[in-house]
Amino acid sequence: MAPTAGADGSSVRSGPGSAADGMFLTYVGCDSFFGPSSAPGTRVNLGPGTAPLGRRSFGLVPTAAGTASGPYVPFLSLAGAGASVAVTARAGTSGASYIWTSAPDAPSGHAWLGRAVVSVPAGGWHTVDTATLRYDWQLVDLVTGSATPGGSASPAEFVAAHGDGTGYVVTGFGCDGHAFNVDAVRGAGQTWDFEGTTLQTAISASAPQVEVGQDVVVSGHVTDASGRVTGDPVVLQARTPGVGEWRTVSDLTLVGPDGWSRASVTVTEDTEYRWLRPEGQYADAGSSASVVVRVVPSTTATPDPQEPAPSSPTPSAPTPSVPAPSSPPQSSPAG
């Protein structure tokens, strides 16, 4: 993510950055600049404790001992480099600082390389300033890699002896394998602050309106600035549309296999819903836009209990059939 400007004029980062950003985080060997090294794990953390700038810092977790990880800071003048970094490590940590510079007395195809051992004690934040360090210098043939020792000197002493020049500083920690955090990187008149990333939360409802007492499914997902789904858990909140306080109506809802979180709620009146993303280590709390689900009349007619039920028609009584009289027996005339 591209850096943004902080309220104090610092450049705010949420990731390690790249060469195009000026300062960026990198890793090198501990015993020598080109020695064996491995990429550390990275993270953004609240604090730890009170961060030197803002609320967060950038965490680096070595995969093994032997690698120095930290900021690369370019400069146009070693005399004005002013490179420093704030560091904290629960167990303390050791590292190395390197300066590459093209001093005026360096022959064509050569550059000066200085190396200094650095460390910070356990706990708290500590600022490591390259101006206060003493470096062991060597003149390096950039074609063959051969080096000629050039003595020990602070950056100011080196400039006084060899002249000023352009170059860059890499100050890294974790050589002992201990995890640590960095913040408030400074150099060449600039300051960089590590903060959380910016997230967006989307929301949708399975229906814009339902009959009273029916359920609706509200879905949401969280993405970063690149559109990548982050999978942050969310909670569903509701209120009367446009008024009142938001109230939580779901448990913390985890993301499903498709990257969406879902909650089913019963709607008894017009209700406005939103997803709330709680604060995390690497991002501030935030909420989605809202959706309103309205209640509509039922399509099934319900009889009014105050109206008498229609009477059932009385079946007509069957017309009784009249029995035919029996014919009287015919008598024979007396004779």
Protein described:
The chain has one helix at 155-162, and strands spanning 4-5, 11-13, 24-29, 41-46, 56-61, 67-75, 84-88, 93-101, 110-120, 126-129, 135-141, 147-153, 167-173, 180-187, 190-194, 199-205, 209-211, 214-224, 235-239, 247-248, 261-267, 271-277, 286-287, 291-296. The chain is an all-beta fold and 335 residues long. The protein has two domains: 4-194, Jelly Rolls (Sandwich); 199-296, Immunoglobulin-like (Sandwich). The strands form four sheets. Strands 1, 2, 4, 5, 7, 10, 14 and 15 form an eight-stranded mixed β-sheet that branches. Strands 3-6-13-8-9-11-12 form a seven-stranded antiparallel β-sheet. The chain is elongated, with a radius of gyration of 40 Å. Residues 313-335 have low confidence and may be disordered.
Give a short synopsis of this structure:
The chain has 1 helix and 24 strands. The protein is mainly β and 335 residues long. Strand 11 and strand 12 (147-153) form a beta hairpin.
